Amino acid sequence: MSQPPSQPPQGGFGAPQDQPPTGGGGASPDPRSGAGFGAPQSTPPPPAQPPQAPAPQNTPPAGPPGPGYGYPQQPGPYTQPGPYGQPQQPGPYGQPGPYGYGQQPGYGYPPQTPYPGAPGAPGPGGSSKNPFKGKPALVIAAAVAGLIVVGGTVWAVTGSGDDKKPVAEKSPSSSPSVSAPASDATANPGDGSGDGGEENDDLNAGRKAGEAKVLWYKSAPDAPGSGAEAPGMWITGKTAVKAAYKQLFAFNVGDGKPTWPALTFPQKICAVTPQKTADDKVVIAYMSSSASSAKCNQLQQIDLNTGAKGWTAQIAEGELFDSTLTVELSITGKTLTVGRSMSGTAYDVTSGKKLWDKKKYGTSCYPAGFAGGSKLLAVSACGAGSSTEHDEVQELDPATGKARWTTKIPKGWRVGHAYSVDPVVLYLTNDAKKTVNITALKSDGTLRSQLKSDDGLAPECGFAILNRDLTGCFGTAADADTVYLPTEAKSGPNEIVAFSLATGKEKWRVKSPGDAAMMPMRADGTNLLAYVEPSYDSGGRVVSIPTGGGAHTPVKLLQNPAGTANIESGFYSKAVDYVDGRFYISTLRLTGNDEAKEKLMLAYGK
After folding, report:
1. Is the pLDDT of residue 45 over 90?
2. What are the φ/ψ torsions at residue 296 (nearest 5 degrees)?
3. How does pLDDT run across 252-297, given as a tens digit for each residue?
4. Are strands 460-461 and 473-474 parallel, antiparallel or unpaired?
């Protein structure tokens, strides 16, 4: 990796250190790969199956190849120099990054996986005492995934500156069918509205002692042959809500029966807020028409508990090249942020009142992406095409849109993902050097650390073209002092590695207790919640890993039945969540395959 400049850029901490991407997703524009060290990995393949095992039911649709893919995968990108300077120790994550430290080699952007750009970031927690409640983790298994090897980086920090409505209706022909999961009376069967066939088989037949029950299983509504998005998944105290194509469905968390009639939108759903508000509201965006030139500019607020429709709005077009062909939505407190390709607009999520616009600032800085949640981050592209081209990161006041701090990313480095917004943990890519870097910032935007590791880290991330899906990664979690990232699962189990945000160094690691990959879901400062994916002879499981002390042995919270492992493993592009002792898994993409009913959602519980 090339060394950082002898002197850091003005107002910065030095040029980021670069690390070759390891098994990562290519340096595509708006990559959604967010692997720890190394470019995020493309969607992992389905679990290994024994000879003559039946093939998965759904075949994911082929997605367009992501630009920048094809860099060779190299080990340990996180030991190479990063944007902020030279790493202290050799290894893929020890080479200098944008700030001079451990970038990951092997940034190598892998070929894009079948499900392009399904939106989805972990949702905010609910009010339950359960630390893991209400925070869905999105698994984009059909997206770009890559390995990350961490390097250092330096940042320049400046002071803060500156009509149609959905129709509520039942749609028998397109509504998901409901399976009756068991002769077991406690299996909470659905309402029996399925159309027969495999779905009505007893999914709890042969369930072993200690295994969870299938509470309910839904098949997806019909989708066009070209496929359709099924973004988001939200769990409240009584309702599981899922979007699919043009509809929004609500199921009782215990038995899967409809909580309220399905809402059908005039056109296909094109974006959703991954988060929900404290009072269980979300905002859905749908297309303006069915024409090829249609815009994703129609907003509708929805109450998840009742299905009631709230305010509506049409997103205004931006200036030249600043379109709403695609948009990204996020919620921070009471603020909804809508990101266009080169600007953003904020609304009061309760009333729909416009609050502020985030447009070009400085000489040539245009907002390119937003990341919401407990904090609101904006990433801007500055000086495009010039010798000073670079990215800048800002924390915005969600009420006013004003920048609380601004951090200049060293030239040549691009912000691909925000693994965490609080604390701020960023995944950076460098196309010219074919390297990646993971950098943590302090609460004032100054450099905190750069990760250093010899591993190939492999969160699963989606893929975007016009917008940067900053929070579209599954398999990352962070608390105040630590970030947790999965290693690559080449064959069999992988490991989760805990890195200190103070030093960037490894604190501890733990191996998956199963024969498949284990992915972080979320952390609460005391425990890390993780999902162990199914293997050919075992269902998935949910585990809790103590993050303090000397022992980090995974404790099993829920063991899904082996009898439905083939169904569970068939959700290649998926969202998962664990709330109040129940595990939910749903698809993020419909293939439009008419040969068999597609999966929509599956729920397990004790």
Report:
1. no
2. -90, 80
3. 999 999 999 999 999 999 999 999 999 999 999 999 999 999 999 9
4. antiparallel
Question: Residues 58, 63, 66, 70: is their CA dihedral positive or negative?
Answer: positive
Q: What SS3 state is found at 531?
A: strand
Asked if 226-314+571-605 and 476-569 have one fold, the answer is yes
More confident of the two residues 96 and 74: 96
**351-395 pLDDT tens trace:** 999 999 999 999 899 999 999 999 999 999 999 999 999 999 999
Q: What pLDDT is recorded for position 88?
A: 37
Give 312-331 pLDDT, tens digit per residue: 999 998 888 888 999 999 99
Q: Which residues contact 368 (CB under 8 A, 6 or more apart)?
A: 30, 341, 342, 379, 380, 381, 391, 467, 468
Phi, psi angles (nearest 5°) of residue 185: -65, -25
CA 362 to centroid of chain Cα atoms: 31
Query: Helix, strand, or coil here: 186?
Result: helix
Q: What is the domain partition of the chain in residue ranges?
A: 226-314+571-605, 359-474, 476-569
Cβ-count burial 579-591 (b if 16+ within 10 Å, e if not): beebbbbbbbbbb
Residue type, 221: P
Q: What is the 3-state secondary structure (H, E, C) of 331-379?
A: EECCEEEEECCCCEEEEECCCCCEEEEECCECCCEEEEEEECCCCEEEE
CA angle 565, 568, 571 (to 5 degrees): 145
Contact predicate 127/45, CB 8 Å: no
Contacts of 527 (CB under 8 A, 6+ apart): 131, 544, 545, 546, 547
Backbone φ and ψ for 419, nearest 5 degrees, come out as -65, -25
Strand (E) or helix (H) holding 37: strand 37-41
- Rounded Cα distance between 33 and 38, Å, is 9
Residues 204-218: what's their mean pLDDT? Answer: 95
Q: What is the DSSP letter of 566?
A: H
pLDDT at 67 over 60: no
For the segment 14-42, what is each residue's pLDDT rounded down to a tens digit? 444 444 444 333 333 333 333 334 444 44
Pick the CATH number of 476-569 from 3.40.50.300, 1.20.1250.20, 1.10.10.10, 2.40.10.480: 2.40.10.480
Q: Where are the beta strands (DSSP E) in 458-517?
A: 460-461, 473-474, 477-478, 482-486, 495-500, 506-511
The predicted-structure confidence for 422-463, as pLDDT tens digits, reads as follows 999 999 999 999 999 999 999 999 999 999 988 899 999 977
Architecture of domain 226-314+571-605 in this structure? Beta Barrel (2.40)
